[in-house]
């Protein structure tokens, strides 16, 4: 009798899972035999959050707990760098960006740093109470010029080295406050609302955010740009979706679930060969070589005891080859070897 009852429970659970996954493409991702990633020893418990390079060899890494590291060998080794910021503040350095020798760092709470000599010297700018929200993303535009996005969905631009900031958004309510925000290749922005219940797009020629509904009832984790300019979406439940129509931003594919392990994905990125990488909790690092149809687990990522929160590939005129990094919590970082 107990055996019959147990079998009925198992059958019911199987039916529930089957219904829940109906309409999804689920891939049983096998473990890969090799990896293009190599762990980097940062010698810190802080979370690395962003990296950018002045040239092929020299670059900076920033993160939580006032973390700033410098490399002179293209990102193989990193050394601590001191900044002139108040010692009493537990600053979170969240964004760094260079264009030639011009560079900016955005931090929380209310921190902006500027350099014109490739990071040898940094000047701290006093934002005071001028900007709504905390700095979230900063982009170097040109000499003495940058764009700053905040956690309130405000976008500002300076053309005089940060002495003055001009608002580019007249109404931030359409952003819903942000849990995540990215700048697109055409100079616009895409953000996920603070609750993850919708995402918004800001075109480079508009002054207001355009909100869009999520693709399902599951909250949105992240939205970003594919190499062709269309969008991708990560939702809770480890779901991946791709925009299916370039003329309709709300036309989404069925959800793809590469692996069911109870952890959500935090980021998606395309490597130089246009393979797709997905990063998430508990060392989840996956690759697809066929546009998301099938997936494989990365063995190096699987061996790292951390939650991966970001994937970054950099390919610009200052680098001999593409640089790539996977950011993990508690000082974990993977470097792309190709």
Automatic annotation (TrEMBL):
Subunit note: Part of early PSII assembly complexes which includes D1 (psbA) and PsbI; not found in mature PSII. Binds to the lumenal side of PSII complexes. Interacts with YidC.
Free-text comment about domains: A 7-bladed beta-propeller torus, about 55 by 55 Angstroms, with a depth of about 25 Angstroms and a central pore.
Membrane topology according to the record: Lipid-anchor
GO cellular component: photosystem II; plasma membrane-derived thylakoid membrane; thylakoid lumen
GO biological process: photosynthesis
Family that this chain belongs to: Belongs to the Ycf48 family.
Function of the molecule: A factor required for optimal assembly of photosystem II (PSII), acting in the early stages of PSII assembly. Also plays a role in replacement of photodamaged D1 (psbA). Assists YidC in synthesis of chlorophyll-binding proteins.
Protein name: Photosystem II assembly lipoprotein Ycf48
Organism: Prochlorococcus marinus XMU1408
Keywords: Lipoprotein, Membrane, Palmitate, Photosynthesis, Photosystem II, Signal, Thylakoid
Pfam families in the record: PSII_BNR
Subcellular location: Cellular thylakoid membrane
Annotated InterPro entries: PSII_CF48-like_dom, WD40/YVTN_repeat-like_dom_sf, Ycf48/Hcf136
Gene (UniProt): ycf48
Annotated ranges, domain Photosynthesis system II assembly factor Ycf48/Hcf136-like: 32-337
Main location: membrane
Source domain of life: Bacteria
